[in-house]
Amino acid sequence: MKISDILTENLVATGLAGESKKEIIDAMIDLVATSPKVLDREKVRKAIFEREEIMSTGVGNGFAIPHGKTDAVTDIVAAFAVTASPIDYQSLDEKPVRLVFLLVGKDNLVGPHIKLLSRISRLMNKEEFRKRLLELKTPQEILEAFRHEEATYFEA
Q1: Within 13 Å, how many C-alpha atoms sit on residue 53's CB side?
Q2: What confidence tier does 108 reach under pLDDT thresholds 50, 70, 90?
C-alpha cells in the first residue's frame, strides 16, 4: 500500500492553524473524520491520544506522525498537514513541528499499518523532501510530491 493510495486532496491541509500539540492533533482528527472510512470520530480521537500518552509521536526534524488503531474505521485512513507556524510538540529532538502525518489503522490490520508507518518515516527522513513539502502551497502539489517521491524511492 502506498501513501498516495490513502491520501486525497480533502485529507491534506496547508497552513493548518493551531497553537499547541493538542490543537494540531484535534485539527488533524477533524480533517481525517471527513473520510467515509471514519465511523466514530471520538473513538479515533481516543485511540490517537492514548497512543500519544505512551510516547510523543514527534519523531524529529520538524515532523510528527500521530497514529493509532481502532475499530472506529473501516480501513486505514490518513491525513497530512503543514502547520501555519512551528508547534511545540514535545518531539524527541525537542524541535518544533510543522509537518504532521496522521495515520489511523483498523485494529485488525496491524501489518499494513506498521508498513505504512515505516514507509512514511523513510520518506520523511529525507531532508530535501521535508523542505519541499514546506514550500508547497496546495493539497494537489503535496499529493503530487508524495507520488513522485514514492515512485523514485520505492520499487513499484
Answers
A1: 6
A2: confident
Secondary structure letter of residue 61 according to DSSP: T
- Beta-bridge partner residues of 65: none
CA distance 6 to 12: 11
User: How distant, in Å, are the alpha carbons of 52, 101, 117, 124, 147 from that of 69?
Assistant: 12, 15, 12, 21, 25
- Cell numbers 529532538 correspond to 93
Active site residues: 67
**CATH H-level, domain 3-153: superfamily:** Mannitol-specific EII; Chain A (3.40.930.10)
What's the CA gap between 67 and 49, in Å, rounded? 9
pTM of the model: 0.93
Task: Please give the pLDDT value at position 156.
Answer: 41
